[in-house]
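queue> pop job 88
queue> type: inverse folding (structure -> sequence)
queue> payload:
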């Protein structure tokens, strides 16, 4: 039996939010941090503003929703290319929901809805372009790795 291939992903998350006294109190430090990777620009991040974060920075929940959307788009473009559907434009307005537990001390992402708006080269491609969205959760690495439902509400236009 052949060995499964593996891929590894290394990132550094560096806290930049020490305001002078470290974490000596819940309100005494910033949640600011950077997501770093070799040869890539840093991603300025924080926690959600609901959890004392900076609204001008990306938070982990947004980055998770973005990862779901990115993986869906990349697989979708691949499937379109291999199935004769010519995509000329693609934008997704993804939406994630986090549900807090009853104690208020924790929560989890409970759903992501992808709303891709896709333009295809010809009207004859719209039906196939629509149906290909249904195949992606089975192959998308991120969709296969999460425990919440991912739904798709695509709009297909001919250009």
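queue> result:
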């Amino acid at each position: 039996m052949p060995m499964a291939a593996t891929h590894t992903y290394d990132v550094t998350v560096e806290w930049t939010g020490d305001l002078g006294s470290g974490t000596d109190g819940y309100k005494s430090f910033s949640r600011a941090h950077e997501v770093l990777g070799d040869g890539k620009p840093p991603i300025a991040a924080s926690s959600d503003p609901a959890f004392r974060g900076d609204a001008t920075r990306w938070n982990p929940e947004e980055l998770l929703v973005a990862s779901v959307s990115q993986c869906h788009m990349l697989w979708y473009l691949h499937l379109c290319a291999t199935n004769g559907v010519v995509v000329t434009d693609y934008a997704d307005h993804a939406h994630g929901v986090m549900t807090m537990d009853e104690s208020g001390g924790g929560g989890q992402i409970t759903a992501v809805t992808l709303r891709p708006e896709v333009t295809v080269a010809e009207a004859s491609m719209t039906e196939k372009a629509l149906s290909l969205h249904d195949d992606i959760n089975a192959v998308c690495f991120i969709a296969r790795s999460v425990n919440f439902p991912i739904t798709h509400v695509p709009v297909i236009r001919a250009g």
